Amino acid sequence: MSMISFAPDTGVWLLATPHTSYALRVDETGAPCHLAWGPRLTLAEAEELVVPRPASTSSFEGRPPVGEELPVDGGTRYGPPSLQVRFADGSRAFEWQPTGHRVHEGELELAFRDRRYPLHVALHYRVRDDTDVIERWTVVRNAGDEPITLLRADSAAWALPPLPEYRLSHVTGQWSAETQLRRDQLPYGELVLTSRRGVTSHHANPWVMLDAGEATEEHGRVWSAALAWSGSWRITAQRTPDGRAGFTGGVGHDGTSVPLAPGEEFTTPPFAGLFSEGGFGAASRAWHAYTLAHVLPHPDEVAPVLYNSWEATGFDVDEVGQKALAERAAELGVELYVVDDGWFGARRSDRAGLGDWTPAPDRFPEGLAPLVQAVHRLGMAFGLWVEPEMVNPDSDLYRRHPDWVLHFPGRPRSELRNQLVLNFARRDVADWAYGWLTGLVGEYGIDFLKWDMNRAFSEAGWPGRQDGADRLGPQYVRNLYDVIDRLRADHPALRIESCSGGGGRVDLGILSRTDQAWASDNTDAADRMGIQHGYGQVYPARTMGSWVTDVPNQLTGRTVPLRFRFHVSMAGALGIGGDLTRWSEEELREGADLVAEYKKVRHLVQHGRLDRLSPPSADTGSVVQYTAPDASETLLLAYRRVGRHGAPVLPVRLRGLTSGARYRDARTGAVHHATVLGAYGLHPDLPPGDWSSTAVHLVREPEA
Questions:
Q1: What is the distance between the alpha carbons of residues 78 and 72, in angstroms, rounded to a whole number?
Q2: In whole angstroms, how large is the CA radius of gyration of the chain?
Q3: In angstroms, rounded to a whole number, what is the distance separating the alpha carbons of residues 125 and 131?
Q4: Which residue, 59, 146, 383, 446, has most beta carbons within 10 Å?
Q5: Model confidence over 629-670: pLDDT tens digits?
Q6: Catalytic sites, residue numbers
Q7: Count of C-beta atoms within a 10 Å radius of residue 700
Q8: pTM exceeds 0.70, yes or no
């Protein structure tokens, strides 16, 4: 079957992915309407879904609020609009008039205009032959001579089939407690998930999953979508009294708008959707595969084991101390050494120096070159923490350019963490950031940047521009993307980690320009199990930075064994952040052994199939499995938080193994039949007591 096919007699468009179908048509009013999103259909079968719209039984109802590809504000529509415009004469309605279509290399474009005003709208759909993810976005163009205001311009709206019940899965949280998974019955009416903070945020993440309330990790139909955007966003889910549900999402939040000058167009970010029939686990694996294949810049690479100096030194950073830490990190087997905050300007605390991006002469008398060279001689790559979007009022940069920060004249400039936000929507600010970044990376041969962003927007104004406050949000993110794109073009070997006070900027948009993300500033291993569980619902382990740090943990005060901390961090891109000068010789030996153990299996964690065999629990712990694409190897990471005498010990049934094969335990040499492992299970060899953990690496035996 062709990936995109069309039935002229009925006007049905059918988009086919390897396992799913998406069908739509332009109805008799000219509006693009949804027909189906689910299991595979032929074009003839999709045409059968075209039925006359039932007559309204009430003058209070209007058009069904779920069922259009991009619901607009106009006519008898009363649901949440995906497209809402205000023309120069004050009119706010939009009427669909089809003007054509285009199909090219897996992409469908449906073109429309308003019947009266010179506003053009193009709906875009992209399908690929190796993923069930469908990418959708919208382009809105002002073809007239007068300005138009986009009050709302979502990327796409998604409709679900009628189901007896609807359940919404999403994540919520806050700083140091990100990505807490919630699965709740979808209420009738409208439910809004949003960030008004200028970044993706710690408090919500721009993806949703819906099911009929029956899906499990292994079974059931799941509809999901993720927005590729790193600024403020909004997703509105609705459940209607007539038994339907859908959701719409895009850039910005309530109360924002985008001016559209004559001849100008606005392109929304992709809002990608996925239907799967294998439960939440299959949905996650499909998102992981899509991200690795079509989002990350270098998906085939293996993330290095890194060391970060922050928890060891805080702001007390100098050449001598960093060299000593680097020597210990190299002995552990670290491959990337990262100097965190405190290396530049007058930075002795978070109160000063941010924005003055030159090495502090009293701490690095010869610049960073001696440290970078020392790290390279130790066989490690060199990384550096930067926060290009921020400035301290106590800095040379702010004293030169107080106009560069977000603010409204006459209003206080609210400080959070003693800093203000630079207006990256301004081209001169973005060019300044690009200039010093590319110069710094080039001068010192820096291999890795930890790109941080440590506060939300406030007083988000752009003095000097009448439309500045409205243009700021989208242009800020686009200029941010442009700076990163230019930087990477200059330095192809450079790798970047996205960070925003932890997990405040994790989304498909930023991941298309960076190599990994810092999931949370909370490095407590027990808390991290829940954070990582929510993170992995959509984003792959290859992108998830996870550190082993010291105990008692600086946030929670909890003490857990070094082995447990390592095994939790091994579920992602392993990092180490403790003060190695205080580790005992025994801890250093154990740490080196665990780093070596991780290196043997990280290809499974970072590029394998993830199965969540047992979700995190305060009592029973958790088990996750990572399996090679060809099922030649598999890894179990098993955790128990609380050891309880007499508690039942249940076997873990493995998934995704080769039927009829045998697997050898790489540590013990024990051989297991795949049938037994899958049907009857394995008892992971967990040590007795609290906070116990183990890693079980099984390798398929050659056929006799």
A1: 9
A2: 27
A3: 14
A4: 383
A5: 999 999 999 999 888 776 777 899 999 999 999 999 999 999
A6: 452, 521
A7: 18
A8: yes
